[in-house]
Design a protein that fits this description.
By secondary structure, this protein is α/β, with parallel strands linked by helices. It has six helices and eight strands, in the order βββαβαββαβααβα. The longest helix has 17 residues.
């Protein structure tokens, strides 16, 4: 399976079956949600293109992936963060979603960016989404009614005057009320997938601390 991202709401998946790759329709994804727990569903998309990869092309892609991993041996290593922190997504347990871009030098505080709800497109029922600004109940209703994405567990992490430049993962680690909420969610299932817009040191440190606190797989 390959993830794709295009403009606007064109976010979704390409799925291979018998060497044929195509994007999944709304009904196909909804059916998969009910039938298969093997992958986390994403935003429903309509099929626009279908194309085929022959055996040679698939082998070429596999060779490229292996070369990337071999050239970057630390790419998938997570030992520094403890035995319970790994790369990848868990099927079981909720996801913790961040759209924080404040650690890019072009941006400042998370509150200055109004796109945090974009990460909801990668979520599902009972996932946790972290916001630095006010909730939009109307947009949440739109997600649930039209895209079948909703019933989020929303954490409000608006910065205090002297902490506005703290990235959201750091706030979730340093603010006891946020951290304890995340710990409870991870403890309830034994799993938590942290899905950030940017994978930074603060994200990995949060994963390490939650794993130490709960013994859950992060």
């Amino acid at each position: 399976m390959i993830w794709i991202k295009a403009s606007g709401l064109q976010v979704g998946r390409l799925v291979e079956k018998g060497g044929v790759w195509s994007s999944m329709s709304n009904s196909a994804i909804l059916t998969q949600r009910a039938r298969s727990p093997e992958t986390r569903p994403s935003i429903p998309i309509k099929q626009r293109y279908a194309f085929e990869l022959d055996a040679a092309q698939r082998q070429q892609l596999s060779d490229i992936a292996q070369r990337i991993v071999k050239s970057e041996p630390a790419l998938c290593e997570t030992e520094y963060f403890g035995p319970d922190v790994h790369c990848g997504l868990h099927v079981d347990g909720p996801a913790l979603l961040f759209a924080d871009q404040s650690e890019i030098s072009l941006y400042s505080a998370p509150e200055n960016m109004l796109f945090e709800y974009r990460m909801a497109m990668l979520g599902e029922v009972n996932d946790v989404i972290v916001l630095s600004h006010d909730r939009s109940r109307a947009f949440e209703a739109y997600l649930q009614e039209y895209l079948d994405i909703g019933a989020f567990d929303v954490l409000m992490a608006a910065g205090q005057p002297n902490q506005r430049h703290w990235p959201l993962p750091k706030r979730c680690l340093e603010w006891d009320s946020l951290f304890r909420h995340i710990v409870r969610r991870a403890s309830s299932t034994g799993f938590l997938s942290i899905v950030p817009y940017l994978s930074t040191g603060h994200v990995w440190n949060l994963a390490r601390r939650v794993a130490e606190e709960t013994g859950a797989e992060i």
